[in-house]
Structure formats: structure tokens, C-alpha cells
């Protein structure tokens, strides 16, 4: 039986993709090869050589040459393209990667199938940037997209819907599912008391403590609630350049019940910490945090400007598995938090509801089915 050989070319080898890469590597009748730069950069944890070997992932290293910290050239990619060893090439859909432009143009002339895997359109591009991005988006025949919104935006730009596959995103689905179903309320309550010395409603944030995450808005919101006599616990998991600024603002307002956990990479510990929380609040762009939080049964509050959000925001159902507030409005955020706690007492049903979209779409099994449909030429469903 003929085996399809597919090259997946990424800017990096992000660690969260290991479960997906491993699953793709085990696919029958489709031979997936992976090409990327595996050195950690910009806080991105990458897949180690040991993990690549242990999971039998066919992998070759590329080298990223960066210009002005924005534009990338992937050294070694043209040699791979010119050999034409693959029937299908899947590139990271990053228009700032100049080597992808050239590689795609070369492959187009050869009639070899090309796919871009990425955001497609964000919807907030000014006219020139949008024109350049659409020139880039018209290079491949197919797109693998992180969300349904991106598909709708590309259809508006006259791209063929039959060539647009929504693949969503995923984390370590199997491990997180196992951890979720191992969580016991009695143990979670005990851990909450050990951290805060109380059993009160708890907010959590997990991620890099950066300006883009707008944690200053969350601290402002807690101060607004404090003035009303309303206090919640807050647990911050992560570290980053904004840590000192956040601490200064906390001290300025005289807020208590706020704990810094620091960075954590153990899904067992993260699952317990997210599981004991009543709500995750991500005041800036939410990204993979939405998947992480809902995987452990905890709803998410974030802002409502989808043009400045990660595509994973689509997983949140307003007033069901989370809520939205007006972007950059700390008063609105405070009201959203207060409303959530007044309307949503904790329940096992709510936590199970959070997992529904994870189990249906945001997992490697679903992603593999989309990849295989793409490679084998099955038209995507609406």
C-alpha cells in the first residue's frame, strides 16, 4: 500500500505539541516528518531530543535566523523543499517567516500540495497588513486553522471553504483527562485551606506574568470589589517580567488573600490548583489558558474583543463555561467576577460542562482526524 509522506514545518517545536506529534507519528499509511528549531526562545518550552526519540518522531532540526526579533529565515528548509521527497508540505502559517514565502512559491510551480497551519486572519489588520497577509494566505491550496472565526474571515476574502480545515488546538489531553477524573472535592478543599487558610471563592491565573496578560486590570478589579466589602482569594501561577509591578500594585492597594505559586509544569499539581479554583481570569489575551482551565473543569473570564484574542477563546460559552467583560475596563471586569459568583454556585455539572468541547474538539484525536482528512482529500464539513 502506498504511504503518503508529509512534511510538517514549524518555527519551533513547542512542548505542548508533543502529544499531537506523537500521535501523528503513529498514524498508519501517512508518514509524518517534522522539521523545526528546537532551541528554547522567548519563554517557549520545546520538545527535547530525548522526547523525540522516545516517541519515535521522525524529526530534523532547522536553524532560525532572526532579524529585528520579528522576521525569521529557516536555514535548511530550501534544501528539503528542492528534494521534493514529500507529497504534501504543511508550513507554520507565519507570514513573518520569509523562507516560507520562497518555499511555497517553489512548491506551487512543482504542483506539490501546500498547507499553512495557523491563524489565517485575525480580523484586526489595517489595510496594508491585511493585503500582505492575504497575499501570503493565497500561496497554499489548503489551510489548517485554529478556529471557526478565522475560517469565516477567509471565506469573506473569497478563499474556497472546501480548502479550509478547522483543526483547533490541544494540550496533553489524555494526561489532563486522567488528572481531572482523579480530582476529589475533599482533597481540593483541603489544598485550598492549606494555601489560603480559608474556604472562600478563589480566582486563578496561570501563564507568563507579562504586560500582554493585563494582570494590572485584575488587581484593579479586586480593589474595586474590596471597596464594596467583597474579597476573593487569588492564586497566580507563573513568573515573568511583570511580577514586581504586580506586587507593587497589590501592596499599594493593601490587598491580601493573594498568593504567588511561581512556575509549575506538573499537570498533576496544575490540575489540583485549577481544580480548586472557582474561576480562571485572564484579563488580556487568553490563548491556551482557556483549554488548560476548562480541561480541569474551571470556567474562564476574559475580555470580549475577539480581534485581540487567541483563537482558543472560541471554546468559552458565555454564561455557561465562562464570561466576557469589556476590554481594558477594570470596573466591568469587577462586575463580571461578582456576577459570576452570584449566579454560579460550584457544581459537578458545571465542571463536566466545561469538558464537553475539550472532549469533542480540543484534543489530539480530533486533530488527527482533521489532518488525515486533509492529506487524504476528504472535504471538510461546515
What characteristics describe this protein?
6-stranded parallel sheet; 7-stranded parallel sheet; 15 helices; Rossmann fold; 41% helix; 382 residues; alpha/beta
Structure description:
By secondary structure, the chain is of the alpha/beta class. The chain folds into 2 domains: 4-170 and 363-376, Glycogen Phosphorylase B (Rossmann fold), CATH 3.40.50; 173-360, Rossmann fold, CATH 3.40.50.2000. The chain has 15 helices and 15 strands. It has a 7-stranded parallel sheet with strand order 3-2-1-6-7-8-9, sandwiched between helices. α7 (173-182) crosses α11 and α9 (215-227) packs across α13. The longest helix has 14 residues, at 330-343.
Q: What is the CATH homologous superfamily assignment of the largest domain?
A: Glycogen Phosphorylase B
- What fraction strand? 15-25%
- Would you list the SSEs in sequence order as H and E? EHEHEEEHEHEHEHEHHEHEHEHEHEEHHH
Coarse shape: globular
Secondary structure tally: strands = 15
The tally of domains stands at 2
User: What class do helices, strands and sheet pairing give?
Assistant: alpha/beta
**Main sheet strand line-up:** 3-2-1-6-7-8-9
- Which stretches are poorly predicted, pLDDT < 50 over at least 5 residues? none
CATH classification, class level of the largest domain = Alpha Beta
CATH architecture assignment name of the largest domain = 3-Layer(aba) Sandwich
| Major β-sheet annotation | 7 strands, parallel
The protein's oligomeric status is single chain
In whole angstroms, the N-to-C terminal distance is 31 Å
- Mean pLDDT across every amino acid position: 93
Radius of gyration, in angstroms, nearest whole number: 22 Å
**How many H/I helices?**
15
Amino acid at each position: 500500500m502506498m504511504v503518503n509522506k508529509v512534511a510538517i514545518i514549524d518555527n519551533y517545536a513547542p512542548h505542548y505539541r508533543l502529544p499531537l506529534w506523537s500521535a501523528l507519528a503513529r498514524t498508519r499509511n501517512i508518514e509524518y516528518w517534522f522539521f523545526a528549531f528546537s532551541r528554547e526562545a522567548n519563554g517557549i518550552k520545546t520538545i527535547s531530543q530525548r522526547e523525540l526519540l522516545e516517541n519515535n518522531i521522525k524529526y530534523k532540526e532547522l536553524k532560525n535566523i532572526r532579524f529585528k526579533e520579528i522576521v525569521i529565515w529557516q536555514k535548511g528548509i530550501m534544501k528539503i523543499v528542492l528534494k521534493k521527497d514529500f507529497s504534501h508540505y504543511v508550513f507554520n502559517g507565519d507570514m513573518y517567516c520569509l523562507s516560507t514565502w520562497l518555499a511555497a512559491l517553489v512548491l506551487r510551480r512543482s504542483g506539490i500540495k501546500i498547507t499553512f497551519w495557523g491563524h489565517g486572519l485575525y480580523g484586526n489588520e489595517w489595510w496594508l497588513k491585511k493585503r500582505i497577509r492575504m497575499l501570503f494566505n493565497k500561496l497554499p491550496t489548503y489551510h489548517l486553522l485554529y478556529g471557526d472565526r478565522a475560517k469565516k474571515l477567509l471565506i469573506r476574502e473569497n478563499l474556497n471553504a472546501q480548502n479550509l480545515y478547522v483543526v483547533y488546538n490541544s494540550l496533553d489531553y489524555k494526561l489532563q483527562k486522567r488528572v481531572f477524573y482523579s480530582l476529589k472535592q475533599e482533597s481540593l478543599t483541603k489544598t485550598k485551606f492549606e494555601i489560603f487558610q480559608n474556604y472562600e471563592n478563589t480566582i486563578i491565573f496561570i501563564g507568563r506574568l507579562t504586560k500582554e496578560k493585563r494582570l494590572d486590570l485584575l488587581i484593579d478589579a479586586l480593589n474595586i470589589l474590596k471597596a464594596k466589602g467583597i474579597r476573593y482569594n487569588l492564586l497566580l501561577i507563573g513568573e515573568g517580567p511583570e511580577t514586581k509591578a504586580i506586587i507593587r500594585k497589590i501592596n499599594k492597594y493593601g490587598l491580601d488573600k493573594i498568593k504567588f505559586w511561581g512556575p509549575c509544569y506538573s499537570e498533576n499539581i496544575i490540575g489540583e490548583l485549577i481544580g480548586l479554583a472557582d474561576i480562571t481570569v485572564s484579563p488580556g489575551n487568553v490563548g491556551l489558558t482557556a483549554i488548560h482551565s476548562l480541561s480541569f473543569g474551571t470556567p474562564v473570564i476574559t475580555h470580549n474583543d475577539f480581534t485581540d484574542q487567541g483563537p482558543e477563546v472560541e471554546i468559552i460559552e458565555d454564561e455557561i463555561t465562562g464570561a466576557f467583560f469589556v476590554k481594558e475596563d477594570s470596573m466591568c471586569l469587577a462586575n463580571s467576577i461578582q456576577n459570576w459568583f452570584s449566579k454560579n454556585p460550584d457544581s459537578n455539572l458545571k465542571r463536566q460542562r466545561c469538558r464537553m468541547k475539550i472532549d469533542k474538539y480540543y484534543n489530539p484525536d480530533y486533530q488527527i482526524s482533521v489532518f488525515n482528512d486533509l492529506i487524504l482529500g476528504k472535504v471538510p464539513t461546515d
